[in-house]
Amino acid sequence: MCDKHNQNNCFEHIPSGLPPITVNCIVNGEKVHAVVDPTMTLLNFLRLELKLFGTKEGCGEGECGACTIIMNREPVNSCLILAVEAEGANILTVEGLANDNEISILQQEFIKKDALQCGFCTPGMLMSARALLDRQPDPSIEEVQEALAGNFCRCTGYIPIIDAVLSAAKREREELK
Questions:
Q1: Per-domain residue ranges for the chain?
Q2: Which numeric CATH code is attached to 21-96?
Q3: Within its chain, how far is the Cα of 171 from the centroid?
Q4: How far apart are CA 157 and CA 3, in angstroms?
Q5: Mean pLDDT across 110-139
Q6: What is the pTM of this model?
Q7: What is the CATH number of domain 105-175?
């Protein structure tokens, strides 16, 4: 929450005064144990507490998809979920896509196909695409469009993004058999 009339930084969570709650979850394969304000969103928890800045806040209302992460194998808008709701969850953020400091095939294809410009929407696009490819390794164009329908991009248009996802799907099927 941000009180623009207060001197607090708007990137800080303003505590509610309610008793803190313990959260145990797994983020990008690492066990996390934290005590959080019960009103803190999962987005703020990831960014402010865990210092995972790849997940972006766009609209703060679940409309733009910039904050998309994968929670328990499903893409979710982290701005709409309280951190305490992540108790026991398995969470994957864009930082978790790389393997041994090498970017994933999906990330490589986004670069190769010029599927990004300003990059603000890219983490959410990648996470929505990753969730799709995890459940459907050979998606149709329509399935990619549907999977990305909750993610807005104001720079590239969607054709390079869709091409990147389809190309990544093909490469993953060939290289990761």
A1: 21-96, 105-175
A2: 3.10.20.30
A3: 22
A4: 34
A5: 95
A6: 0.91
A7: 1.10.150.120
